[in-house]
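User: Teach me something about this protein's shape.
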Amino acid sequence: MSFARLFAAVAAPAAVLTVLAAPALASTTCTSAPKDKWMSEDQMKAKIAEMGYKDIRTFKTTKGNCYEIYGHDKEGRKAEVYFDPTDGHIVKQEID
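Assistant: First, the predicted structure itself:
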């Protein structure tokens, strides 16, 4: 097999996998508002508790300017949730 054919046989599937993986690597963006317009972490944690989320094992700020949690929803299901830090609304959630 020639080098060109071998390269094409390897490069084409790799390119397809790269394109398919790109959305998984994309970051969720929640706001472009300056941080002085955000709720404090304590305010957000209180709002999250009011919404029924519990057993929060991770609370962090993402590169996309979201507050992100890993925990459980009020039904006890595993939850990964992204919140807009300016008002606390849910931007994205994944429930297992």
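Now, about its shape. Helices lie at 3-25, 41-50. Strands lie at 54-61, 67-72, 78-83, 90-95. If you'd like, I can walk through any region in more detail.
User: That's plenty for now, thanks!
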